[in-house]
Design goal:
This protein has six helices and 15 strands. It has helices spanning 3-17, 24-30, 32-48, 52-66, 193-234, 244-251; strands spanning 69-70, 75-76, 81-83, 89-90, 95-96, 101-103, 107-109, 121-122, 127-128, 133-135, 139-140, 145-146, 151-152, 161-163, 168-171. α3 (32-48) runs antiparallel to α4 (52-66) and α5 packs antiparallel against α6 (244-251).
């Protein structure tokens, strides 16, 4: 794919995924994420052509201008979109698929000093929320979503949603998008595993309290019956034995 075609796909990604993008000129002039990826496209070509010093210099200048640090060795597919474009870091051996969306503060970082593959791989259509960190040579499969401020250190299967520190899978299936031709940007519709756990605990407590209340009531009836029998015996009158129903209520 030619350099111009790649940059056009990045421009189209902004127009397609950000409702704040109005005019073409405004988008071209005011989106630092677009400027960063356009500079990276050129720097990556220089890096592959073994003009590595020049590539690093261009990458550095782009970082100074946009606040986005993309190593020229990183491989990034078409339709890449960095929303707000501040504080994003993408390491040298990172690989990013097509139609990927990153929000501000995302890091695709390494966890090793050893040469070779050190940074993550993102499949097609992945969405990474603001402030998330994906660390190490792991793979986030196609269509996965990473919640804001999550720290991902293990592979993520296709279509899954992960949140937390360290990130855990909280959802594996999502309802189909209303527009299948566009990227699903509903990253605010995340499950709340902590809330669901607390709700289950509250239900369990309510059940146990009801059970204890029923047992206390049965015990009170049994004690009342026993007290009545003792009083009658002391008066010299024999009482019939307690029914099997009362005994069952007490022992239940």
């Amino acid at each position: 794919m030619s350099l111009l075609t790649l940059i056009r796909s990045d421009f189209a990604a902004i127009r397609g995924r950000d409702p704040a993008a109005r005019g073409r000129l405004e988008t071209a002039l005011t989106y630092p994420g677009l400027h960063a990826i356009a500079a990276h496209r050129v720097a990556h070509r220089l890096w592959v052509a073994d003009w590595r010093g020049t590539a690093r210099l261009l990458s550095y200048l782009a970082r100074m201008a946009t606040g986005v640090d993309i190593h020229p060795g990183a491989r990034i597919g078409a339709g890449f979109f960095i929303d707000h474009g501040s504080g994003v870091v993408i390491g040298e051996t990172a690989e990013v698929g097509r139609d990927v969306t990153l929000y501000h503060g995302v890091t695709l970082g390494g966890v090793s000093w050893s040469p070779g593959k050190r940074h993550p791989t993102l499949g097609d259509g992945v969405m990474v929320g603001a402030g998330a960190k994906i660390l190490g040579p792991i793979t986030v499969e196609a269509g996965a979503r990473v919640g804001a401020n999550s720290v991902v250190v293990e592979p993520v299967p296709a279509g899954a949603t992960v949140v937390g520190i360290p990130a855990r899978i909280v959802q594996t299936e999502r309802p189909p998008s209303s527009d299948p031709l566009r990227v699903d940007l509903n990253h605010h519709l995340m499950p709340d595993p902590v809330g669901r756990t607390l709700a289950r605990l509250a239900d369990r407590i309510a059940f146990l309290e009801a059970r204890l209340a029923a047992r206390d009531a049965a015990l009170a009836r049994h004690e009342s019956h026993c007290a009545a029998r003792i009083a009658v015996k002391q008066g010299g009158i024999e009482m019939p034995r307690e029914t099997s129903t009362a005994r069952h209520e007490f022992h239940s």
